[in-house]
């Protein structure tokens, strides 16, 4: 099962999305014969790994998760998880639970890492992978929020966590903050949340002036501030992945 799901995920592109995602959905629905959602949980874990490893394609993997959430057979149940009404968690609710738990675990674990000086060492490779996955996680979380799979409250909690240290900010978390705000800022920045957003950007302004951060990170923060000032219209937006057509 693991090998076949990995093979399908490796084949997944924007061009064949419908066909391959249908096949992945069929694998997830095989958990209807189980009481612990084992196959579905493993599928979600593998999708999560791909999304954090390949942040360029985060929006495609978020779209896949949305399809799994909306189309997973309600007969798929996990008898170890219960709803408030005392029923077994099932179907799309189960998909969202597995996904949210995985996101929360990795986000709380963090991804601060000291990069070794030897660029060719195994330690450098591992450190770079941890950092890449951390940035991929933040990008993926943002894309899930854009598809209404994560709540606005969760997104505010993520931003607050990344903004918690203004005096001696970690570069990894600050870079992640810039990525997250760039992804979700337009949707978060509405009238009802204006006071929150104003407070966030006051702290971002303070961080952008903090000489303890390197110039690359400070410029990223200034770009985020310019983006909000421009009503979230990014004139220099890079082209994302396209279909062949």
Number of strands: 2
Percentage of residues in DSSP E strands = under 5%
- The CATH architecture of the domain at 1-150 is Alpha Horseshoe
The strands making up the biggest β-sheet line up spatially as 1-2
What is the level 1 CATH name of the domain at 1-150? Answer: Mainly Alpha
Give a quick account of the main beta sheet: strands, pairing sense, barrel closure: 2 strands, antiparallel
Rg, alpha carbons: 19 Å
Could you spell the SSE succession in H and E letters? HHHHEEHHHHHH
Q: What structural category characterises the helix and strand content?
A: mainly alpha
What is the mean pLDDT?
88
Within the CATH hierarchy, at the fold level, what is the topology of the domain at 1-150? Answer: Serine Threonine Protein Phosphatase 5, Tetratricopeptide repeat
What is the percent of helical residues? 55-70%
Low-confidence stretches: none
> Which shape, going by the Cα principal axes?
globular
Could you give the distance between the termini? 32 Å
Total helical elements: 10
Protein name: ARM repeat-containing protein
Keywords: Cytoplasm, Initiation factor, Phosphoprotein, Protein biosynthesis, RNA-binding
GO molecular function: mRNA binding; translation initiation factor activity
Family: Belongs to the eukaryotic initiation factor 4G family.
Summarize the structure.
Belongs to the eukaryotic initiation factor 4G family. The chain is mainly alpha-helical and 245 residues long.
